[in-house]
């Protein structure tokens, strides 16, 4: 389970839950500590007739998942092009729908995600593609500048030139040496 946070404490949660539903249990325990979810998605490993029309059984884990989603203000977002989200490796098994997307029902992306089975290889899971609205984010940007032809500009350029000239590039005979030299060059720019 991965929690991704943006600057407005909106969370994107990507789930992989094993057959013991370990991630679902962890989510259940931590949902009171999560401020605002904008999307809950992933491989839930729950087969259920609620979202898989080719599966005729009900999973006891479905109630927990729906309760968690509901408490977070999310609903199961229906696919625009319903089909299996995981293709079975074994020809004796059936394809299934175990990858799901939960969104706030008022989000512009609700019911707008699509499956793209043509681009799933080498994975056995089909990519789910969705555009969601996460609201406007204001980001402060600091721009550092040096006045052209100033004493500071001359000192800065001189320091860069000295740093680059001090690099020993004669030892670049392997990829490892090249990586080391590139890191040293990055350090020159970072420390100037």
CATH architecture of the largest domain: 4-Layer Sandwich
Count the DSSP helices: 4
Distance between the termini: 40 Å
Give me the CATH fold name of the largest domain: Deoxyribonuclease I, Chain A
Report the principal-axis shape: elongated
Query: How many DSSP-defined strands?
Result: 7
**Chain oligomer state:** single chain
Strand order within the widest sheet?
Answer: 1-2-3-5-4
The low-confidence runs, each spanning 5 or more residues with pLDDT under 50, are 1-7
What is the percent of helical residues?
A: 25-40%
Report the radius of gyration as a whole number of Å. 25 Å
Overall mean confidence score, pLDDT: 80
Q: What would you note in describing this structure?
A:
With 192 residues, this protein is α+β, with helices and mostly antiparallel strands. The protein is 28% helix and 16% strand. The protein folds into two domains: 2-129, 4-Layer Sandwich (Deoxyribonuclease I, Chain A), CATH 3.60.10; 151-191, no CATH class. It has helices at residues 22-30, 60-71, 151-165, 175-191; strands at 2-5, 10-16, 36-43, 75-76, 99-103, 114-115, 128-129. It has a five-stranded mixed beta sheet, covered by helices on one side. The radius of gyration is 25 Å and the shape is elongated. Mean pLDDT is 80; it is low at 1-7.
């Amino acid at each position: 389970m991965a929690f991704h946070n943006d600057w407005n404490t909106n969370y994107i949660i990507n789930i992989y839950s094993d057959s013991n539903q370990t991630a679902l249990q962890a989510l259940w325990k931590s949902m009171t500590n999560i401020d605002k979810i904008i999307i809950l998605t992933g491989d839930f490993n729950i087969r259920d007739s609620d979202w898989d029309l080719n599966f005729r059984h009900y999973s006891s884990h479905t109630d927990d998942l729906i309760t968690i989603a509901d408490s977070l203000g999310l609903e199961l977002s229906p696919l625009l092009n319903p089909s299996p989200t995981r293709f079975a490796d074994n020809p004796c098994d059936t394809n299934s729908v175990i990858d799901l997307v939960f969104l706030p029902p008022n989000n512009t992306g609700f019911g707008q995600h699509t499956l793209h089975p043509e681009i799933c290889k080498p994975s056995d899971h089909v990519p789910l593609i969705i555009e969601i609205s996460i609201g406007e984010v204001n980001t402060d940007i600091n721009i550092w500048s040096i006045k052209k032809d100033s004493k500071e500009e001359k000192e800065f350029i001189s320091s860069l030139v000295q740093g680059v000239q001090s690099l020993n590039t004669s030892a670049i005979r392997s990829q490892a040496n090249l990586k080391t030299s590139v890191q040293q060059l990055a350090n020159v720019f970072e420390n100037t």
